[in-house]
Amino acid sequence: MFRALVVEKDGDDTHAGIQVMDESRLPDGDVTVAVEYSTLNYKDGLCIGPGGGLVRNYPHVPGIDFAGTVESSDSDRFKPGDKVVLTGWRVGEVHWGGYAEKARVKADWLLPLPDGLTTRQAMAVGTAGLTAMLALLRLEDQGLQPGQGPVLVTGASGGVGSVAVALLAAAGHEVAAVTGRPDNADYLKDLGATTIVPREDIAETVKRPLESETWAGCIDAVGGAMLARVLGQMKHGASVAAVGLAGGANLPTTVVPFLLRGINLLGIDSVTCPNEIRGVAWSRIASDLDLSKLDGMVVPATLEDLPELGNSILEGGVKGRVVVDVT
Ligand code: NDP
User: Stretch 225-230: mean pLDDT, rounded?
Assistant: First the structure.
């Protein structure tokens, strides 16, 4: 028997609560993992609540990422006792996820725990942090180097934003952090931000398609009008990694920044990203991310806390990375 946070559907409503269940209820898969830690990402907020179109079947166990120890395995890639990490592959959305003491998944979705990280640290990074690293790798592939000017991070106090600030600073960049929460300025400076940009300075809809060339790169967790505005503020030939939509899915822009400034808009997909690239990203995280800064981002939580925290992340109320101790 094991404990899980289960979302039940009741008409148009959903309700999340802790249930004790038998292993026979676990979905198909070739590896069973004793989950130690999971996390809370924006998508988890959707899946704990009304689903946002992500969850197909109820009852459902959310949790889009987890780390733990292999308990049993029909795959020759993993054996009992191996430490593993999982992010993406629509686990926690269409497949039961990490908000349970046990998870059963496909071996192809698992990676060995990166050297140098504990299961708790891996989940402090989680999907949000891995995605921030994937974004930085793409910006570097496009030629971003320290010394070219400030790199902007939008939604900076959130999960993706916090790790992005710390990773960019560790790579030697000047980091400008956009936040709607001025109280988080010291937190963001501790992570490595050199400048704080108030959200209202950059949130208004585009009035002129091109503004002063300001940013050498951008990791954008917000989308919407803010992303449109940022495109017109990039330096010539610079790139924006589009990661999220915390501020909206529409992109009310023109093609002018692309045509007159050669701006690149790079899409970041952490869900189906090939394992080879994930491996590169995790190694870079393990070698570059200052673990004391990672510690400073962590908000500890339990399965019981998740319904309330799920609402909070959808309202932009979570700071840093919520790490869920599942045991
Ligand atoms: P968080 O809620 O932790 O962070 C989002 C941050 O955005 C908030 O903390 C807040 O930061 C800011 N924000 C919230 N609402 C608004 C708004 N209306 N306008 C402007 N800024 C706002 O979420 P995550 O960091 O987990 O995820 C961020 C986004 O990235 C989500 O849309 C998520 O779905 C997406 N994502 C995409 C992935 C991919 O593979 N492409 C993987 C992981 C996440 P502040 O208060 O500092 O302004």
Answer: 96
Q: How far apart are CA 116 and CA 188, in angstroms?
A: 25
Looking at the CA of residue 270, tell me the nearest atom of ligand 1.
Answer: 40
Assigned token pair, 149? 């000017």
State whether 235 and 140 are in the same domain: yes
Domain count, the chain: 2
Q: For residues 140 and 154, give the distance between their C-alpha atoms in angstroms, rounded to a whole number.
A: 18
| Same domain for 134 and 107 | no
Å from CA of 318 to ligand 1 middle: 10
Between helix 159-170 and helix 275-288 the angle, nearest 10°, is 60
Structural domain that includes position 93: 2-113+293-325
| Secondary structure (DSSP) of 211-269 | ----EEEEEES-BHHHHHHHHTTEEEEEEEEE---TTBS-----SHHHHHH--EEEE--
Ligand 1 center from residue 316 Cα (angstroms): 7
User: Is residue 92's pLDDT more than 80?
Assistant: yes
120 in a structural domain: no
Closest by Cα among 166, 30, 12 to 103: 30
Q: Is the pLDDT of residue 162 over 80?
A: yes
pTM for the whole structure: 0.97
Residues with CB under 6 A from ligand 1: 41-43, 127-128, 131, 155-161, 179-181, 184, 199, 221-222, 226, 243-247, 268-271, 313, 316, 318
Q: What spacing in Å lies between the alpha carbon of 2 and ligand 1's midpoint?
A: 32
Are 262 and 142 in the same domain?
yes
Q: What's the gap in Å between 247 CA and the centre of ligand 1?
A: 7
Q: Could you tell me which of 290, 323, 282, 327 has the C-alpha nearest to residue 41?
A: 323
ipTM over 0.95: yes
Which residue out of 123, 162, 243 has the highest number of ligand 1 atoms within 8 Å of its CB and is therefore the one to mutate? 243
Interatomic CA distance for residues 204 and 202, integer angstroms: 6
